[in-house]
UniProtKB/TrEMBL annotation:
Organism: Billgrantia aerodenitrificans
Protein name: MFS transporter
Transmembrane segments: 34-55, 62-80, 86-108, 120-142, 148-169, 194-218, 230-252, 261-279, 285-308, 320-342, 348-369
Keyword Membrane: yes
Superkingdom, taxonomy of origin: Bacteria
Keywords noted in UniProt: Membrane, Transmembrane, Transmembrane helix
Major facilitator superfamily (MFS) profile domain segment(s): 1-374
Gene3D superfamilies: MFS general substrate transporter like domains (1.20.1250.20)
Xref: InterPro entries: MFS, MFS_Cyanate_Porter, MFS_dom, MFS_trans_sf
Keyword Thylakoid recorded: no
Amino acid sequence: MVLVGLNLRPALSSLAPLLVRVQADTGLTPLAIGALTTLPVLCLGIFAPLAPWLAKRAGPENTLALALGILIAGLLLRGLPALPLLFLGTLLAGAAIGIAGTLLPALVKRELPGGADLMTGVYTMALCLGGALGAGLSIPLADLLGGWRFSLMSWGLLALLALVAWLTLMPRAPHSQVATATGGSMRELLGQPLAWQVMILMGSQSSLAYIVFGWLPTLLQARGYSEAEAGWMMGASVMVQLISALGAPWLARLSRDQRPALLLVLGCIAAGLWLLLQAGENWRWPGVVLLGLGQGGSFSLALSLIVLRTANSRLAGKLSGLAQGGGYTLAAMGPLAVGVLLQLEVGMSTMTGVLLSIVAVAAGFALLAGRNRRLDVDAEGRLVTR
């Protein structure tokens, strides 16, 4: 699971530092580049709800193996010369990550029900490490391998390693163990306010994450930083996420619910964005650290809520599909909006205000989703919130 998590971000973070080269080589407009950064996030939202359906028919283990195979194909395709293949490969990679990322919380809930929140922190840490490697190594790999296309394709090797490891070591629970649980349909889930609160929290905090993955280097370059320095600053910020991704679930256990921890990490995001986009150059590294601590913690806690707000692995899978499907669909609007704002040549103050507004939305829903409540099925088979 940790090795799979390591592959769920390089496909996204490895593209951002290379956007200037991609644009120069392909002639894509800022709006088209914005669509390219939005496409994988939109695919996360569109394909995430398919994960429970596929898992019910093929088993979650086989479905995850299929997702890794699609990820490999997408990573290889987007490095080929034809421009449409760049978009097709990005689409496939986003679809694969959407399916794999949705399956992991349910697998964690099934295999480690007592420590699901802490294990979520562990594989989220691996996910953040993958994001950091993708951001930090993209430019060096492009220089070493002779171009941005080979840099993008090279991440297929890491995905191949994960596929081989998963096929060798994956848990092999009987299919009936997963299929026999009843109660709690998707229609019932849509009628629960708690499910919507978790979904919108996931979407708003993920929107900030994918804006950082897609546009932070470009925004930093607009402030005068070099291409390489902007890439390393984003890579360092993602690397710092390792600390809070693992530590935030432990921190949340100190309180009766997750609201204080969520507000703390969202406050770090707001402070980090303001320092990077508005403060002087001397404040860039505190901004990098605060942004990383906030984003690693907020994503880890948002994923933890999926397992903490459900009574069993089946409901966790359903909520994961809804929260990540709907959440990532909302999140896709963030990178696209930044692309539109850059096309309109708005000032950095306006850009900062838009990003801080998204943080405020996330904080509002954190106060709701962070309460100590849980979705369960009652004795009559109806979905209820306890």
